[in-house]
Write a structure and sequence with these properties.
This protein has 616 residues and is α/β, with parallel strands linked by helices. The chain contains 19 helices and 26 strands. About 2% of the residues have low confidence.
């Protein structure tokens, strides 16, 4: 895009200067200064687990005879299934409640809302603090200048028992949003414009800091929207230095004065992007890929079956006010279902007090209790095969919010579209809504058999499954409808059953096979099952150009070999070829033609965990 200027700097790090992420990590480690690439033990101010993942955290702690380092810093947050409508979730929640009673751990139960939001509401997350949870959108805490990180079940169990867990200091990128924000451009439009610029993996593994005069004016609700979807850009975290208003909010919630933590003025960044905010436009993400954003005009008039307003990205009071402004005195189009879910109980009650709930109900919308809703399988917001939904959620991966197609947009566009019956904008709502039209699609779930996990030496050889695709997310690897499975032996048969063209992978894969993919493998959710399903099948290793940050940690901690490579073109690889991989050297060899390329060898930490058989 011609309104983006990029500056790349040599990695010449000054002796004392640090970026914001480096400063926060250093303040929570034994080192006065850290730099990108350092692997340090980070002390976490908050260690949380959700109802999704919480039972597995408990299982890891009990199975490994671990204790709790500090119960006052340890929490459960039940936000994936606050309706209690799923028996397996109910079982997992009760396991967590019993464990919490036993160890004096506070539970933010089903009447509270989204856990990451609760951490900000309760003054537990604030400028310069650290928090780790099983939520892959924990980096939403960058909205208040905190370092939040989503991790897998083993990591969380280790953090609960030690208070610390290792982390590799990421490189930092700086984004300057220059110019004035155009009228009508919401925070959701800002992040969708950024997704259009950076895609799903250009910022993969980076800590991103965003600056600008308009950024300083952003409200907490707007900052939450932008910080949340840093995950969809592949970023470790998106950090926004608090304004005085945000700092005052955090201080009031914490009940004490919070001191601001900033990046040093001479901090060194790997890349700096100057972006003209005044050129931003209303945008919508097309189904399947959050980063596949287009001008709203390109998708106008597309008939919808349902709308969803909520999620950790857009379930705040300002989002609900925006929707209510459009819905007041209007009706949701015939045949269209509009579901609205506030992010927290505090937001729900504020919406009730302001009369927003009454507006929603009179318009024909359904309002649910606070929680994650459509992003999680256990609450309202899911759609069916053939259903077209416009949603304020942060993800629209295939199958993530159901079996239909999901467009992502701002609350204003979702509300306008629900009234119109098709995708539109607040200034283009027709007098008469579009008539409902049914769309039908077939859907088949294929499963296969699992096999025993085999022990793996430092050098392995096996048949290749070459899948030349970028951005294979965890819902494609192991769909969220199977998340209640905790027995690894049962996981293998569901591997890739949501990846188009490979839904019969588990049936045809053999123990000893090796999977090779491209960029950003394992993006999306923090689920450990997306690693363990390969172990269940006996897959020896996964090779990729890059991995999603949480997925990489989960694989390393589970002693499952993953290797990154820059290029495998020289291998002349064909599906079914036999390759040899050496984890100590990183050498990858095609045994058919004896051609080799160099991959990244195991780090000392990865090799230690691998030889130990896992993190524990």
């Amino acid at each position: 895009m011609n309104f983006v200027k990029e500056f790349i700097f040599e990695k010449n790090f000054k002796e004392n200067s640090m970026t914001l992420i480096e400063k926060i990590i250093a303040n929570h480690s034994k080192f006065e200064k850290v730099k990108p690439g350092d692997i340090v033990d980070v002390e976490w101010d908050v260690r949380a687990a959700r109802d999704f993942g919480g039972a597995n955290v408990v299982k890891n702690i009990r199975d490994n005879g671990l204790g709790i380092d500090d119960p006052s810093k340890t929490f459960f947050t039940f936000d994936c299934n606050p309706t209690g409508s799923d028996q397996k979730y109910a079982v997992n929640q009760h396991i967590c409640r019993l464990f919490a009673r036993e160890h004096g751990i506070k539970v933010y139960d089903i009447d509270n809302g989204i856990g990451t939001h609760i951490l900000m509401h309760e003054g537990l997350a604030y400028s310069g603090s650290t928090a780790v949870t099983t939520d892959s959108h924990a980096n939403i805490l960058g909205a208040v200048g905190a370092f939040g990180q989503g991790m897998g079940d083993q990591d969380i169990a280790a953090a609960w028992s030690k208070g610390k867990i290792w982390f590799k200091v990421p490189e930092s990128v700086k984004i300057n949003l220059n110019g004035k924000r155009p009228a009508g451009i919401t925070a959701k439009d800002i992040i969708l414009n950024l997704l259009g610029i950076f895609g799903a993996n250009k910022l993969l593994g980076y800590s991103v800091e965003i600056y600008g005069e308009e950024v300083d004016r952003l409200t907490l609700d707007e900052r939450i929207t932008i910080a949340s979807m840093g995950t969809e850009m592949g970023a470790i975290i998106t950090l926004l230095t608090p304004s005085q208003e945000i700092l005052d909010y955090s201080s009031a919630r914490a009940g004490r004065k919070i001191e601001i933590v900033r990046a040093d003025s001479d901090a060194q960044y790997s890349q700096v992007f100057d972006i003209d905010l005044s050129k931003f436009e209303l945008r919508v993400s097309r189904p399947g890929k959050p980063h596949d954003t287009v001008k709203v005009d390109d998708v106008k008039q597309i008939k919808i079956d349902s709308g969803f307003i909520g999620s950790c990205t857009n379930g705040r009071i300002e989002d609900l006010r925006s929707a209510a402004e459009i819905l007041k005195g209007r009706k949701v189009a015939p045949g269209v279902v509009l579901k609205i879910v506030p992010s927290t109980d505090e937001v729900w009650n504020q919406a009730l007090h302001e009369g927003l709930i009454d507006i929603f109900k009179k318009s024909g919308a359904m309002v649910s209790n606070a929680g994650c809703a459509g992003c999680a399988a256990g609450q309202v917001g899911q759609n069916g095969p053939g259903e077209i939904t416009i949603s304020t959620g942060n993800r629209n991966f295939p199958g993530k919010q159901g079996k239909g197609e999901v467009y992502l947009a701002s609350p204003a566009i979702v509300a306008s579209s629900a009234v119109a019956g098709f995708i539109t904008t607040p200034d283009d709502i027709p007098e008469n809504p579009a008539l409902f039209k049914v769309v039908k699609k077939d859907h088949v779930i294929k499963t296969g058999k699992s096999s025993e996990v085999v022990e793996k030496p430092v050098e392995v050889e096996g048949k290749v499954w070459y899948i030349p695709e970028d951005n294979i997310d965890t819902d494609m690897i192991f769909h969220n409808r199977y998340l209640t499975i905790t027995d690894i032996s049962e996981m293998g048969k569901y591997t890739f059953d949501n990846l188009k063209g490979y839904d019969d992978f588990a049936k045809n894969a053999e123990s000893g096979d090796i999977v090779i993919v491209q960029k950003n493998f394992g993006s999306g959710s923090s689920r450990q099952q997306a690693v363990d399903c390969f172990k269940s099948l006996g897959i020896q290793a996964v090779l990729a150009e890059s991995f999603g940050a949480i997925y990489e940690r989960n694989a390393i901690n589970a002693a499952f070999p993953i290797i990154t490579y820059k290029s495998i073109e020289n291998l002349d690889l064909v599906n079914g070829d036999s390759i040899r991989i050496n984890f100590e050297t990183g050498k990858i060899t095609n045994m058919k033609n004896k051609r080799s390329v160099q991959g990244e060898k195991f780090s000392e930490v990865q090799m230690e965990i691998y030889q130990n058989g896992g993190l524990f």
